[in-house]
Amino acid sequence: MIDFKNTQTKIEFTSQTEVLIRDVIKKVFEYEGVKERGVSVVITDNEGIRELNRDYRNTDKPTDVLSFPLFDEDGSLDDEELGDIVISLERAKEQAQLYGHSTEREIAFLTVHSMLHLLGWDHEDEDCEMFQKQEEILARIGLSR
Questions:
Q1: Beta carbons of 145 and 106 less than 8 angstroms apart
Q2: Strand arrangement, sheet containing 38-44
Q3: What's the predicted TM-score (pTM) here?
Q4: What stretches of the chain adopt beta strand conformation (E)?
Q5: With a cut of 70, which residues of the chain have pLDDT below it?
Q6: Which fold has domain 2-140?
Q7: Which of 8, 107, 121, 137 could make an SS bond with 130 (beta carbons 3.0 to 4.6 A apart)?
Q8: In degrees, to the nearest 5, what angle opens at C-alpha 45 toward C-alphas 63 and 145?
């Protein structure tokens, strides 16, 4: 189950954007070959994500996306609920303009990036496997660079 909560009013959050995020989440599960689990998606603005970034990462500035995995008592990822994704729709739109691609592509990228973090992937350098996976998944949904 994928749940959505829109906490911002600066940019319209359309049903098309919700469908895109749902499709991307399902594509990541498929690509990784893992069982689908519940994901909560929070859509916010720069101020909302800045507050979360400050409170949970001790970084008092806005970011584009945050991932909050859910763990079982034994420290492994929960079997039913994977975690939460928080996307700043405001930041996604800004970055799309900055990088010269569509807001749709930026939202898909942020969703893939966050999902891979929820599944345990991390990025240490620009050539890491996580970045390669991101591009492969985006290509599979027709939103590669």
A1: no
A2: 2-6, 38-44, 81-88, 65-69
A3: 0.93
A4: 2-6, 38-44, 65-69, 81-88
A5: 124-127, 145
A6: Collagenase (Catalytic Domain) (3.40.390)
A7: 121
A8: 60
